Amino acid sequence: MTERQKALWATALIGLALLLLPFVAGAFGNAWIRILAFALLYVMLALGLNIVVGYAGLLDLGYVAFYAVGAYLYALLSSPHLVEHFPWVAAAFPDGIHLSIWIVIPLAAAVAALFGVLLGFPVLGLRGDYLAIVTLGFGEIIRIFLNNLNAPINLTNGPQGISHIDPVSIGGISLGQPLNLLGLSIPSVQLYYYLFLGLTLIAILVSLRLQDSRIGRAWMAIREDEVAARAMGINTRNIKLLAFAMGASFGGVSGAMFSAFQGFVSPESFVLMESIVIVAMVVLGGMGNVKGVVLGAVLLYAIPEALRHLARPIQLQLFGQEWIAPEALRMLLFGMSMVLIMLYRPLGLIARPHRHAR
């Protein structure tokens, strides 16, 4: 069997496992399928940040802002909020704005990319700690705007958030309702899992193609030595802006899907800690390596969420009482994993290959 055939068989087996995984998890309750669905969302977020941090070497601590932009864009276009608070919108759309997912996804990617460019312009000359502080401030500015844009014009409904958001509908099939297929009832959360899986696979494919493209090599040249890259004729300004825009577009799509999945968004979902966790996923898995980033995202989201459900029963079974609260245990393990990875695997669990080593 050739290497190509082995790769095809491995891909087919992984694909089959991913398709059957929610049925196995569903045997223990829909909460476990929900964890799998959110893990896929975080994989998309980590892949987007990997373009900025892993490929281009630009430390971004405000990445959650693009997640928020996508979420609120979908919420505004798929809920009665605009119709209720803006008479001219009600006059133009008496039945409300209910855009197709095929319009919302590209629109969320485009609007988030625009915000990525707006972030990139002021920070073109910054590197390292200075860049991290500015991007951190950008993320907090977006969150504060979302928290306060309920007066004098109520655009985001402030800290109360936006509710009654339409679920995703594909071909007349609403993902907010169970689907009866060949006598099998597929719950809503499982339908969303398959949607997120498809989008995640597209994000992985795009990331892999970018990695070996001319643009990807330009990003990596800037990451290694920006002065040398400029001397070789690379337009570092445009390439950096493109990195911010591409990474932000992944975050925008993830945010739109988060909004549709939850049916509710509020500024509390887009705090600084979210950005830090996404950065940690990229660092843990291996910056610049798509496989590593996927692994890091799954580990740092799925394992802590599993502990949320299992930590208390396990402690009661072993010790007869709960010694450490699940949330405290989650943060303890998160911190320990970061310390250990920096000590023993500073390049990540799956380090990116060095071209000169080939």
Report the end-to-end length measured between terminal Cα atoms. Answer: 24 Å
**Biggest sheet layout:** 2 strands, antiparallel
Low-confidence stretches: none
- H-E order: HHHHHHHEEEEHHHHHHH
The strands making up the biggest β-sheet line up spatially as 1-2
Using DSSP, what is the number of strands? 4
Total count of helical runs of at least 4 residues: 14
Integer average pLDDT: 87
Percent helix range: 55-70%
- Radius of gyration, whole Å: 21 Å
**Strand percentage:** under 5%
Secondary structural class: mainly alpha
* Global outline: globular
Structural features, described:
The strands form two sheets. This protein has a two-stranded antiparallel sheet with strand order 1-2. It is globular, with a radius of gyration of 21 Å. It is built from 14 helices and four strands. A hairpin with a 2-residue loop joins strand 1 and strand 2. With 358 residues, it is mainly alpha-helical.
Write the layout of secondary structure elements.
Blueprint: H1 3-26, H2 30-55, H3 64-77, H4 81-85, H5 87-92, H6 101-120, H7 128-148, E1 169-170, E2 173-174, E3 179-181, E4 184-186, H8 188-211, H9 214-224, H10 226-231, H11 236-262, H12 272-285, H13 290-319, H14 326-344
Antiparallel strand pairs: 1-2, 3-4
Keywords:
single chain, 358 residues, mainly alpha, 4 strands, 69% helix, 3% strand
Question: What's this entry about, in short?
Answer:
By secondary structure, the chain is an all-alpha fold. It is 69% helix and 3% strand. It is globular.
